[in-house]
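Worked Example 4.2. Consider the chain below.
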Amino acid sequence: MQGQRSGEGASGVAPFAETHRSFVNTWECDDNAHLNVQFYFKRFDEAARLFAGMRGGRIDGPLPRTRHVRYHSELHAGAITRTRSGVIADGPFEGHTVHLIDNLVAGKLAASAIDAPGEISSHDFLVPAEAVQNAIPRGVDAVPATPMTGEEMLARGGLISQRTIVAPAECDAAGDFMEQLYVGRFTDAAPHVWEQAGVGIALIQERKLGRVALEMKITHHTPARAGEGLVLYSLPSRSGGKTLHLRHELVRLGDEEPLVTGEVVAVLLDLATRRTVAMPSE
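Applying the procedure from the previous section yields the following structure tokens:
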């Protein structure tokens, strides 16, 4: 099945499929007054499933082993978005699916995602790598993460940042926990991790700062299911300059089975100027 084509390639043939359109609701925005990262993942997940369906695959298929997201410009309440999807035709990421979320009001690229290859082999919607250079990973390694144990995370200075239970309403048609909500667990726990890193709520309120992600990768190990207890281990690490790296290991309560690994490159944002600022000294 052919999807609606969008955008022009070097040859004049549009390589992208238009896979999603949406609107940024106020309730999807966080304390930084912009779209929360979990809702980018929601849009990417829906676009990926629709893209699979357009090419004869399963809409309810498994999540990609990895999804690597980069944030390029902010989306605020009221923005309208379009997602374009394609398959990278060449280079190191040949065969990976790429998704681009466009801010149709501002005329800017808002975010991009690169998904590990799945079960569909298709020659439709091939995109040259040079056309999606903005999506290529920079601050986080592209290969699937090897999970760390909770003991390892704690020994390196991490913490248990959250304990929750998977509700039936949080699962997809196949009964697996939805990717958006893995990321939602990360974002709900993040303030505790920032406190551990010495950049707590008191400091950011005093200086009128926000804490935002520049780049994220999620590696899937085993799907979580309804009724399971989840334990999230988190570890912050400073790399100097403006960035803070956060690592999350979500495991099943009881047997500590690894479920997902999250890797985040984050920065501080001046909420008045909307520009990044340096991390405070430790």
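The helical segments are 37-54, 150-155, 179-196, 201-207. The chain has two domains: 1-136, 137-282. Compare this with Example 4.1 before moving on.
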